[in-house]
Amino acid sequence: MKLFKGLLILMTTLSLTSFKTNEVLVVVQNLRIEMLSNPTGIDVLQPRLSWETVSLQRGTEQIAFQILVASTAEKLWTNEGDLWNSGKVNSSASQYVKYTGKPLNKGEKAFWKVKVWTNKGESDWSQNASWTLGLHQYKDWEGRWIGFDRYFPWDNADQPRLSARYFRKEFATTKPVKSATASIIGLGLYELYIDGKKIGDQVLAPAPTDYTQNIKYNTFDVTQQLKEGKHAIGVILGNGRFFEMRQTKAYKQKTFGFPKLLMQVNIVYADGSKLTVKTDESWKGTANGPILANNEYDGEDYDARKEMPGWNQSGFNEQAWLKPEYVQEPGGTYEAQMNQFMKVMQDVAPVSITKRPNGNHIIDFGQNMSGWVKFRVKGEKGRKLTLKFAESLQPNGELFIANLRDAKTTDTYILKGQGIEEWEPRFVYHGFRYVEVSGYPGTPSKNDFTARFVYDDMQTVGSFESSNPLLNQIHQNSWWGIASNYKGMPVDCPQRNERQPWLGDRPTQAYGESFLFDNTALYNKWLQDIRYAQKPDGAIPDVAPAFWRYYSDNMTWPGTLLMISDMLYRQTGDISVLHTNYPAMKKWLLYMHSRYLNDEGILTKDSYGDWCAPPESIEAGRGVNADQKHPSMLIATAYYYHYLNMMSRFAKLTGNDADIASFEALASVAKTAFNKKFYNEKGYYGENKLTDNLLAVHFGLVEDQNKDKVHREIANIIEVKNKGHLSTGLVGTQWLMRTLSDIGRADLAYTIVSKKTYPSWGYMIENGATAIWELWNGNTANPKMNSQNHVMMLGDLMVWYYENLLGIKSDYSNPGFKQIIMKPEMIEGLNYAKGSYKSPYGLISSDWKKDGKAFAWKITVPANTKALVYVPANSADAVSESGKKAGSAAGVKFIKMESNRAVYELGSGVYSFNSSI
Fold it and tell me: Locate the Bacterial alpha-L-rhamnosidase N-terminal domain: which residues (predicted)?
C-alpha cells in the first residue's frame, strides 16, 4: 500500500478558554482538520497539526507551544499525553507541526490538544480534538471485492445505460459496542446506509481518480449506529467515472469496468473483543431497483414503482436477491481520501416558472450552477416526469442545448402514485440555470422545486467589494463559476459531455481561486493525480486524472504541475509540497528539454498556443468553432525559461543544490536564444501580440535596454489597437493584470476590467452571464464549444483583485502569510475597496477609501504574523494611525518612504491609517 505523501493539516474547530493579560483578551482557536473529508480514517502516520491564535492586543506573537496526544479522551483531560507530549517547544510555528509520538495501529484513535505561550501571556489548554488511523496497509482490508461484472436485461449496453447496483448484509452485535468504524470503497460512487439511515451527508463519493493507479476510501465513525442487536448494511453503487460515461472511443477514454464494492465494519466491544463485518459471499445484491440508469453526462432515470421498502434494514425479504460475484480489484493503491467531500452546499429557489405552448414548464433559478433539482409531486402511478437541464434559453424561449453536445442532461422520474412524492438524483450532476419540466401533473409552483448547488465542502475564505458595481458582479460570477467546477478535482465545465480536469485551465486560475476558497486539499489531491498520470519517461498529460489519453506534449498545460506547487507553497507556506513534487517536475522539464529543444536553444513544441484568444470582433467570431490550435514556439520557449527559473528556486528551497547551476545555465541560454529569435528592434516580440509581449515582460526575458519600448508597445496595443480591451486567450490572460500593474499601468488593467463591450468580463455580464464564459464571444461562437460556466478566462484577475486592489499578498520569502505585503493600487475612478482573506493564521482585512486628497485605510493583521504596509502618502508626516503620528503608534514601525508610499511594519492587530495623498 502506497501512503499518501502530500500535504495534511489536522484541524477541527474548537476554542480555548480565554485568559487576560493586562485586561486584554488572547485566545487560541480553529484547531482544524482542514484537509480531511472526515477526521476518521486517515492513512498518514505522522499527521501535521495547526492552530490559530487570536488577540485583541497588537503585536501578539507565539513564542512557544506544547501539544499533548493521548490514547483516550479521559487521559487527555487529565493532561496525560501517553502517545506524545511535545513538551514546551520554543517556536513560533503554528502550522504543519508534525506528530512525532508513538505510532498508531489501524483503527486507533488519537486525542490531542495544544496550549501556547505568546509575548502577551500563556493560554489554557484547548478542548480535545482527535483523529483516527484508517486501513493504511493493503492487508488491513479483510474483505473481497464484490459486484456484478455484466449487464442486466434492462440495461442498455449500446448507449451505454447501466442501472445502479444494490448490496446488503445483515449481522448482529452481541455485546455493548465501544467503538465502530465503517470503511468503504464504493466504485464508481456509493451511498452507505446502516439500519435504513444514510451514513454521512456527502454526495458523489468517493473523489474521482484514475482507478488503475489509486482509489480513495472513506471511513466513518458508526459507533452510535451500532447498539447491541440486529443490524443491516445497505450500499447503492452508481457508475460515476468508473463505468465511463462514454465508451465509444476506447482509444481516447479509459474505461474501468462495472461498479464494485469493498468495505468492512470494524467493531470493538466494551470487553475488548472484536467483530469485523466484511464484503464476502454472504452478502446479497440486485440491480433490479428503482435507479434504472445513471450517467454523469446524461442524467438519472428513477422508477419509484420499483422501490424496495426496507431493503437496507434488518428483516427484509432478500430471497429474490442474488449472490454477488467476486470481482477483480481495480488495480490502484488504496488511499484515504484527504480532500473534502462533495456536498449539497446551498439550496436555490426558483425565480420564475413559465408555461410553454407545448404544455411544458421552464423553471429559471436565476443562476448558472452545478448540481441537481429536488422536487415534490403528486400524481397517478406510472406518470413519467422529465427534467431537462440547460444553461440558457433560445430567443423563442426554448432551452438552448446545442452547446451540451451529445450530453442528454435529463432526469426522469416515474411516479408510484402514493400521495406526495419527493425525489432527487443520487449519482449525477448537471450544469444549469434553466430546467424544462414535462409530464408534471397540474401546475407546478416554486415551492415544488429546489436547485441543489453541489461542490466540494470547502470554506469560502475571501470577500471583495468596491465602488465599481461591475467589479463586484465579476467577483460574484467568479465565485459561482469556481465553486461549480469543484468536483473532487477541478473540472473545466459542469454541463456538456466533457467535464474534464484540464491542466491548462488552472495554472494561474487556481492561485486566484485560493483567495476565494480554502482549496489547499483539493489542489494537493490534484497534484497527486498529475504525478500518477506521469509516464515513466516524464511525459505529463493535458488531463489528469488521465480519463482521456491526451499526452500532446507542450509547456503550458503539463507545466501546471510547477505552477500549482508554487501556488500552494506561497499561499500555505508548506515546503513539503515542493519536496513531494520536485522529482516529477524535474523529470518532466528534462523530458521536454531532451525531446524538443533545437540547436538554436528554442523549445519547439507547443500544442495550443494562446488558446481561445478573442476574434477581432464579435461578428468575426459568429458561428466560428473556437476549437482551433495555434502552436507557438515563442510561448513554449518563454515558459521553458520561466520553468527553469522556478526549478532553480525550488532546488534552493528543497536542498537540491546540485541542480541549481544546471537550471541557471539552461535559463541563461534560453533567454539569449529567445531574444535572438523573437525580439524585434521596433520594441516588440514575435508578431507583436499582446500575449507575446506580456510573457516576455512578466518572465523577465526583456533586456534592460528594451524594457521601456516593450512596455510602451503593450500599452499601445491596449489603448490604441484594442481601444481599451484585452486581446489575450487562456495563456496571456494569466499574466495580463499583474504585468500591467508591475509596469506602472494599473490604470490600463482597471480600464480592461471595467469594460462592458466585447471582449471583456463585463461583456459576458451584459449578455446575461451569471458565471464566467469559456469564450470571450461565447454568445456568438459555434455552440460546439461555448460553455457558459468555465474558469479558464479568469486568468490572474482574482489574484489582481486581492493582491493589487485590496493589497493582501503573501511574501514569498516568508510564505503562507506569515509575512503579508499590503500595497493596494491607487487608480483613478476606484474610490474604495474592502475585503478580507482567511489565511492559515487568521483573518486579514483591508478596507480603504479615498476622498479627494484624503486616504483612509483600516487593516487587520492576524496574530503571529507581520505585515509590510505601503500607505499612500506624500510624506511620512502626513500619515496618522488611530489619531496619532503613525511612526509613534503602538505596533507600528516606520521603514522608509518609497514612491509616494510610507512603508511600515505592523505586528498583529487592528489599525486605522489616515493620510494625505
Answer: 175-345
**DSSP letter, residue 604:** -
- Single residue among 795, 830, 863 that ends a domain in this structure: 795
Neighbouring-strand partners of residue 284: 168
Q: Are residues 184 and 314 in the same domain?
A: yes
401: amino acid identity, one letter: I
Query: 3-class secondary structure for 314-330?
Result: CCCCCCCCECCEECCCC
Give me the numbers of helices (H) and strands (E) for the chain, helices first please: 14, 49
Same domain, 620 and 507: yes
C-alpha cell at 665: 545555465
Cell readout for 510 is 487556481
Max Cα–Cα distance, the chain, nearest Å: 87
**Domain containing residue 413:** 342-456
In this predicted model, what pLDDT tens digit does every residue of 759-780 receive, in sequence order?
999 999 999 999 999 999 999 9
Residues 538, 585 within the same domain: yes
Q: CA-to-CA distance for 213 and 534, rounded, in angstroms?
A: 11
In a domain, 6, yes or no: no
Asked whether the beta carbons of 127 and 115 are under 8 A apart, the reply is: no
The DSSP secondary-structure symbol of 339 reads S
Residue type for position 434: Y
| CA–CA separation, 490 and 552 (whole Å) | 20
Q: Per the structure, how many domains does the chain have? A: 5
Distance, in Å, from the CA atom of 520 to the CA atom of 44, rounded to the nearest integer, reads: 17
Residue-wise pLDDT tens digits, 266-325: 999 999 999 999 999 999 999 999 999 999 999 999 999 999 999 999 999 999 999 999
Q: Which of 426, 388, 392, 394 is nearest to 407 (CA)?
A: 388
End of a domain among 278, 310, 336? 336
Q: Is 528 helix (H, G, I), strand (E, B) or coil?
A: helix
| Residue appearing with cell numbers 451584459 | 766
The enclosing domain of 907 has a CATH number of 2.60.420.10
